[in-house]
Amino acid sequence: MVITCLDLEGVLVPEIWIAFAEETGIEELKKTTRDEPDYDKLMKYRIDILKQHGLGLKEIQETIAKIDPMPGAKEFLDKLRSMCQVIIISDTFTQFAKPLMEKLGYPTIFCNSLEVADNGEITGFKMRIENSKYTTVKALQSIGYDTIASGDSYNDLGMIKASKAGFLFRSTEQIKKDNPEFEAFETYDDLLAAIEKNLD
User: Fold this and answer.
1) Which of the following is catalytic: 7, 91, 152, 156?
2) Of 37, 41, 92, 165, which one has the fewest beta carbons inside 10 Å?
3) Is 9 a catalytic residue?
4) Range of the domain at 77
């Protein structure tokens, strides 16, 4: 039995923080896991910037409401889900993901949660589990599943390397160059064909 594990942002939907940076004009918020491998460091950096600008969860959710999945993402996901089980494993947060899951047809997602004060200020975050993508893939394997994984960022490399097949999708030139052992795709059709080949 195979479960395909997919990243969310950059693979199925645009990067939430980049969209919010463009909405607010705060350039520093454009930094993502494609730029900073240390997620803990990245999130503390983001929370500090939000605090400096007096922005909270409400403002981010207003931006998320305007975000649509990438063209072809829902169709890709529907087709993939007809072929095998699919779990989206993301370092995003339940407070961000819910409206996006609705637009994608409610796939299964494993993600983290934000700590939010009564006034809406984001005060911290709670990771579901340490090194969540890699750890989740290893847990699925421990109960008898084979995994196939795909993502675009540094924080996806663990689950891609640990899976029986792993692919980069719309990744950066640097990540592709540093990880030449992984096939890298730019279209959903190519990614779907590569996953299908490994479903046996």
Assistant:
1) 7
2) 41
3) yes
4) 2-12+71-111+129-197
